[in-house]
Amino acid sequence: MNTFKPLIIGDLTAKYPIIQGGMGVGISLSSLAGAVAKAGGIGLISTAQIGFRDPDFLKAPLEANLKAIGTEFEKARKIAPKGIIGFNIMVATKNYALYVKEAVKAGADIIISGAGLPITLPELVEGAKTKIAPIVSTAKSASVICRMWDRKFHRVPDLVVIEGPLAGGHLGFSREQLHEYGADTEQVSASYDQAAYDEEIRGILKVVKEYAEKYKTRIPVAIAGGIFTREDAEHAMELGADAVQVATRFVTTEECDAPMCYKQAYINAAEEDIVITQSPVGMPGRAIRNPFLKAIEERKASGEKAKIEHCYQCLEHCDPKNIPYCITNALSKAAEGDLDKALLFCGSNAYRCHKIETVDEVIQELVGEA
User: Fold this and answer.
1) Bridge-partner residues for 161, per DSSP?
2) CA distance 224 to 246
3) CB-side exposure of 90: number of CA atoms within 13 Å?
4) Please, which residues bridge with residue 18 across strands?
5) Is the bond preceding 25 in cis, omega lying within 30 degrees of 0?
6) Taking Cα atoms as reference points, which of 354, 364, 347, 336 lies closest to residue 27?
7) pTM above threshold 0.85
8) What is the DSSP track for 180-200?
9) 133 φ, ψ (degrees, to nearest 5)
10) Does residue 29 contact residue 52 with C-beta atoms inside 8 Å?
11) Taking a C-beta distance cutoff of 8 angstroms, is the pair 266, 350 a contact?
């Protein structure tokens, strides 16, 4: 019997309190987001180099990406005409404002934004029905966002996503913080201090509650990072969350936009294969250790610099002369199935993926209706 309540965000209601996390480049596009929305959750399309398959991407990446935002949203909407579909947009993205405005223009129900603090997000969606949600990892970042939005825009978030240290891809923690939580080892299941991060979650919930009371409204909260089973979802709800955001678990679904060999890499991974690496974004990231990452480690040890042949203008703060690799190139190789030359972002539980499922099966299992 399902004991999870629908997720209500203003005038939006998702049957299940399940948000599918955004995964770029090309991992969560229209197929996955549409399927999640159709199944009763909230589907998110990642705008990170969303137009990488466009023939003009190499010479005009921004234009290709902006065009793809509308195209992918339209395809997802056909899959789920009445579902809730939105975008995950990284603050670190170059021309961030243009991506947000294009997502609003496409008809996004919601924009969830992390990889930096989305300070300007409210003014970019002004006058639109699109809901906005920052991703935060600490009570301090939650306080900064809420205070800034309150002071500058006289509003609060429609939803807050708390992303913990077990998440995949870019993490909102320093290496020192990851170490404090025991989230930087190759055996995270044994070393992670769940109780310590639960305290941080309670601190964030307290901040959100203060601003909700100030505006006499309700701000739902979703917990993300390491959510893999119904028990994980139940624990999040017990802490006071209204929903969970899940990404890794959806990679090994039939509907995920990733190629089958990418999905198989998750299925084949052992826990010790999942490591923390330094991303050109300047943040630690979690990925599967493969020939690509091993080559990066060897190059770093030898002091050899990466040869960046082409800049895709993807990040606001990126110096091609001083980065370990081009993240657009590494992630697009993953989406194209060239895995030995690819960065395979994943959550800490990727090794627990053992089979290909459907989106509906994953959601039903998470809410206990399987």
Assistant:
1) 135, 222
2) 6
3) 23
4) 244
5) yes
6) 336
7) yes
8) HTT-SSS-HHHH--HHHHHHH
9) -140, 125
10) no
11) yes
Residues with Cβ within 8 Å of residue 368, at least 6 apart in sequence: 1, 2, 3, 4, 230
Distance CA 165, CA 136 (A): 11
**Cα 241 to chain centroid, rounded:** 18
Per DSSP, 6 falls in state P
Token readout for 277 is 């690496």
Instruction: Give the rounded distance of the alpha carbon of 40 from its chain centre.
Output: 19
Token pair of 301, please?
A: 């040890």
Is-contact 43 20, C-beta < 8 A? yes
CA 370 – CA 358 distance, rounded (Å): 12
First to last CA, the chain: 9
Place of tokens 């399940």: 18
**Tokens at 138, concatenated:** 């600490």
Structure tokens that stand for 71 in this block = 């195209």
State how far the Cα of 189 lies from the Cα of 176, in Å rounded to an integer.
18
Instruction: Break the chain down into helix, strand, coil percent, rounded to 5.
Output: 40, 15, 45
Span 149-168, pLDDT tens digits: 999 999 999 999 999 999 99
Both structure tokens of 273: 């294969």
* Cβ(271)–Cβ(188) below 8 Å: yes
Contacts of 88 (CB under 8 A, 6+ apart): 21, 22, 23, 24, 28, 44, 45, 46, 47, 48, 111, 112, 113, 114
Query: Collapsing DSSP states into helix, strand and coil, what is residue 141?
Result: helix
**Contact criterion met (CB below 8 Å) for 249 and 362:** yes
The answer to whether the CB of 107 falls within 8 A of the CB of 115 is no
Which own/partner contact pairs does 192-199 have at CB distance under 8 Å and 24+ positions apart?
192/165, 192/166, 192/226, 192/348, 197/164, 197/165, 198/239
- The pLDDT tens digits of the residues spanning 62-117 come to 999 999 999 999 999 999 999 999 999 999 999 999 999 999 999 999 999 998 99
